[in-house]
Specification:
The chain is α/β, with parallel strands linked by helices. Among the domains are: 270-419, Aconitase, domain 3, CATH 3.30.499.10; 470-643, Aconitase, domain 4 (Alpha-Beta Barrel). It has 21 helices and 27 strands. It binds alpha-methylisocitric acid (MIC) and iron/sulfur cluster. Residues 39-40, 67, 121-123, 136, 365, 491, 537-540 line the site of alpha-methylisocitric acid.
């Protein structure tokens, strides 16, 4: 298989600055665009400052404020003010609070076929809907790329997803990605790119493609990509960017490492049941149980486009939401919101009883609208991890907009095909961009005079020391498979603490073990033992930064999720895996462990379990530079040592 014949390979080749395109080998690629959002961005820019970066060297870098906008006290607005001043300093575009969800806004305004995008948010692959190779990463990696450094990754394998046919009415792009998740699960994409091809691609608009690439993140994939074709051109024309179109398709004789076959015509409405996005069944299968619904939330970076919300408006027009259901709508961007209001669709939603929220992530990241005790909440979002909604015992189901609206109208989980057919959803000739909440970069001269605003919630970053020759300590936590970054570092009500590491660290692992913080403090840190796919989900580097602050020295897991693995290295925590995963059972809470740090120079490391008096073989997949980073105590320390 020649990766260079695929869309993935073409973009990688054009951006390759280090290494060769051989599956699983380390490469460095040039990054054309970066994005950050406030919940990861404040820390990213603080780190950029600590590294002496003072100006973005990319083609475009955008700082979005979309996660933390509740402003219950000074904390969120302190971050916003910092971000606004730093955007001016660094020459970034600033998308202010209320302007929209980073991925939706980026898709509308900046994402370009053939370009690379690195974003400090795991759903950055949304831009793959217009054939941009868009990858999620930790804030520090994004800061480095913004400063002109290459981004390092392992050459991915490419899974070709062959689409044929056309989606039937009331079956949506969301059902396509739910079907993919059903087939490959939450780790089926790790180390891979999901590249879509085949005749079915043509029938999907760029917004529909973006729904699919967005939620590809839930498979653990490095990214997801659609080709750039006439549909892409039309989508770009609609937002006034036709000039940015280039054609980008796989060669006719391209082959893939593996393929998935999906006939769009045969799909039906799907739903991901609690508490995993891959826990997918057809809506039909659930319907017979007449499950009563308490809440329906439409929005998030997966499903908040113009088409999504017009679909909702058309379905509710002249009807009323079931009296026992609370329906919320979060438009993806101010431009979508403005057009909906101008064309009267907003009025239809309001008349049906929808609660209209800001153009932000909102309930998706537990910023308000937590469901009631034991509630059934239907959401068009991409994650339904336990507790993420803000209510620990709530049951969150993920569906398309069509299914969500059907549930809101009927009050039970029901198949949207019951509500007839939706044909010819109107597509506006143009979609004008709203500029009122966007601040464009200023000149270098003006930037020199900008004063950075630092409110009291913005705490300076603290760096850990170099690695000791013997790393020893106690097992202070042992966890099971599929631990998400939401388990490690919950967001929700703690989101305002993102720029205050000492305070945020008090909540590390709270959803799995409330005693973790006090134990970590008492024992002066130690080891964490984990199962498969440790750190799946978000890109939040706080899930490594805060444990590092509490003295976690190493995580020994059966396997890791990609972004979290990189974040652990950035913050000096040694990521190790069991050579034989059955050895997981040979280490328990409270065991005293030790490893010799010079063994990291090889790939195999001996773990001494001093309590059980046994040796266990471990592995690591770190490059030489990663090992040097770990030895220095983390990336900032490593870079500072290198250039001092
Ligand atoms: C998420 O969906 O979990 C988030 C919040 O967008 C995260 C980023 C964060 O934790 O700030 C993500 O997906 O990377
Ligand atoms: Fe925001 Fe939710 Fe998308 Fe994360 S998944 S970027 S919280 S809308």
């Amino acid at each position: 298989m020649d990766i260079r014949k695929t869309v993935t390979g073409k973009i990688l080749s054009a951006h390759l600055v280090e290494g060769e395109l051989i599956a699983n080998k380390r490469i460095g690629i040039k990054i054309d665009q970066t994005l950050t959002q406030d919940a990861t961005g404040t820390m990213a820019y603080l780190q950029a400052e600590a590294l002496g970066i003072d100006r973005a060297k990319t083609e475009v870098s955008v700082s979005y404020i979309d996660h933390n906008t509740l402003q219950q006290d000074n904390k969120n607005p302190d971050d916003h003010a910092y971000l606004q001043s730093i955007a001016q300093k660094f020459g970034l575009v600033l998308s202010k609070a209320g302007n929209g969800i980073c991925h939706q806004v980026h898709l509308e305004r900046f994402a370009r076929p053939g370009k690379t995008l690195l974003g400090s948010d795991s759903h950055t692959p949304t831009a793959g809907g217009v054939a941009s190779l868009a990858i999620g990463a930790g804030g520090l990696d994004v800061a480095l790329s913004m400063g002109g450094a290459p981004f390092f990754l392992k050459t991915p394998e490419v899974i070709g997803v062959h689409l044929s046919g056309k989606l039937p009415s009331m079956v949506a792009a969301k059902d396509v990605i739910l079907e993919v998740l059903k087939r490959i699960g939450v780790k089926g994409g790790v180390g891979k790119v999901l590249e879509y091809y085949g005749p079915g691609v043509r029938s999907l608009s760029i917004q529909e493609r973006a729904t699919i690439t967005n939620m590809g993140a839930e498979t653990g994939a490095t990214t997801s990509l659609f080709p750039s074709d006439e549909v892409t051109k039309e989508g770009l024309r609609q937002v006034g960017r036709e000039k940015e179109w280039v054609e980008l398709v796989a060669d006719k004789d391209a082959t893939y490492n593996s393929t998935i076959e999906i006939d769009l015509s045969s799909l039906e409405p799907m739903v991901a049941k609690p508490h995993s996005p891959a826990n997918v069944v057809s809506v039909r299968e659930l319907e017979a149980s007449s499950i009563k619904v308490d809440q329906v939330c439409i929005g998030s970076c997966t499903n908040s486009s113009y088409k999504d919300l017009v679909t909702a408006a058309l379905m509710v027009k002249g009807k009323r939401v079931d009296p026992n259901v609370s329906l919320t709508i979060s438009p993806g961007s101010m431009s979508v919101f403005h057009l909906l209001s101008k064309e009267g669709y907003l009025a239809d939603l309001i008349a049906a009883g929808a609660r209209i929220l800001e153009c932000t992530c909102g309930p998706c990241i537990g910023q308000g609208l937590a469901p009631k005790d034991n509630a059934i909440s239907i959401r068009t979002f991409n994650r339904n991890f336990k507790g993420r909604s803000g209510t620990d015992n709530a049951n969150v189901y993920l569906t398309s907009v069509e299914t969500a609206v059907a549930c809101a109208l009927s009050g039970t989980i029901c198949d949207p095909r019951k509500y007839g057919e939706l044909k010819n959803i109107p597509n506006p000739e143009t979609m004008p961009m709203q500029e009122s909440l966007v601040i464009t970069p200023i000149s270098l001269e003006e930037a020199k005079r900008v004063e950075i605003i630092r409110g009291p919630n913005i705490r300076p970053i603290e760096l850990r020391g170099a690695l000791a020759s013997t790393v020893n300590g106690e097992v202070i936590l042992k966890v099971v498979d599929d631990i998400t970054t939401d388990h490690i570092m919950p967001a929700g009500i703690y989101l305002p603490l993102r720029s205050n590491v000492p305070e945020y660290s008090k909540h590390v692992f709270e959803p799995v073990d409330r005693e973790f913080y006090s134990r970590a403090k008492a024992k002066n840190g130690g080891f964490v033992i984990a199962g498969d796919n440790y750190g799946q989900g978000s890109s939040r580097e706080h899930a490594a930064l805060c444990p590092s602050y509490l003295g976690v020295k190493a995580v020994i897991a059966k396997s890791f999720a990609r972004i979290h693995l990189a974040n652990l290295i950035n913050f000096g925590i040694i990521p190790l895996t069991f050579m034989n995963s059955l050895d997981y059972d040979k280490v328990e809470m409270g065991d005293q462990l030790a490893i010799e740090s010079n063994e990291l120079d090889k790939n195999a490391v001996v773990l001494k379990n001093l309590t059980k008096k046994i040796d266990i073989q471990l592995l690591h997949t770190m490059s030489e530079e990663d090992v040097e980073t770990i030895k220095a105590g983390g990336t900032i320390q490593y870079i500072r040592n290198k250039y001092k």
